[in-house]
Amino acid sequence: MTSGMVNVRSASHCYGDDDDGILALSNVSLDIGEVEFVAVVGPSGCGKSTLLRLIAGLILASSGSVAVGGKRVTGPRSDVGLVFQAPTLLPWANVLANVIFPLKMVGEYGRGSDDHARELLALAGLDGFETRMPDQLSGGMQQRVAICRGLIREPKVLLMDEPFAALDALTREEMGRHLLNLWTLKPKAIVFVTHSVPEAVMLSDRVVVMSARPGRVIDEIPIDLPRPRTFEIEASDEFQSAAKRIRGHIYGSSAARQASQALVGGVASNA
């Protein structure tokens, strides 16, 4: 008997033929609760995005299984939302039209849809921007619209693939605050892929650390920090201990950790 909203069981995925294909994930098992915020970190190319695509049903596991809400994933699902690194907004549509676009695409648009979209936009700090065009918004505002679009169908699971990677440091911190606000008011399972160790610790209930390709889960680190979280919490022993443990897995030896500490603690936290 499995529990939780997302259940990944011994899942592997190979791109291409078995003989000359690329094994992206190997024997990954993971459970995610109904209202849990889980960050996924690991070296570049370790299969983090592949894991999200398996959960979303965009690709199928070569072996093993993936289930959402107790049902095996066999294709794209209406109860799973996906937010990419780029906002990919429709340039000819205003903010409100962009948010409700998924509803119109699947024939779910109806009475109350606009009000629901406006509610999400207000929660994301975009009240009053409903009629603005994407090119009238900053990068962070565009990404907030994309998050609202990902939430418009009330998914049980929201998958986020490095959604803040292209933003500057201050905007990235602001986006984290808006995301936590949305998640607090509209709780659900979130799987958040990031290359920023401080961002992973700041946002999540648990950090899943993956190995280099083929990706495997090598550690799951609970983040027992009080909510709501503020940036001052980064100075706490608990925060620094979790970050050090994550970096230890990613960078290996203590010498490598020390050599990369300044980069990860400074540049990557502001990436």
Q: Can you tell me about this structure?
A:
This protein is of the alpha/beta class. It has two domains: 6-79 and 156-171 and 188-270, Rossmann fold (3-Layer(aba) Sandwich), CATH 3.40.50; 89-154, no CATH class. The protein has eight helices and ten strands. The strands form two sheets. It has a six-stranded mixed sheet with strand order 6-7-8-3-9-10, with helices on both faces. It has a four-stranded antiparallel sheet with strand order 2-1-4-5, covered by helices on one side. Helix 2 (95-105) crosses helix 3 (113-123), helix 4 packs parallel to helix 5 and helix 6 crosses helix 7. The protein is globular. The relative contact order is 0.16.
| Proportion of residues in helical segments | 25-40%
Which stretches are low in confidence, meaning pLDDT under 50 for 5 or more residues running? 253-264, 266-271
Number of strands: 10
Strand order of the largest sheet: 6-7-8-3-9-10
How many strands, which pairing sense, and closed or not: the largest β-sheet?
6 strands, mixed
User: What is the CATH T-level topology of the largest domain?
Assistant: Rossmann fold
Q: What is the domain tally?
A: 2
Shape: globular
Structural class: alpha/beta
Order of SSEs, N→C? EEEHEEEHHHEHEHEEHH
The value of Rg in angstroms is 19 Å
Individual helix count = 8
Strand content: 15-25%
What's the CATH architecture of the largest domain?
Answer: 3-Layer(aba) Sandwich
Q: Specify the CATH homologous superfamily of the largest domain.
A: P-loop containing nucleotide triphosphate hydrolases
- Through-space gap between termini: 41 Å
Look at the structure and give the mean pLDDT: 89
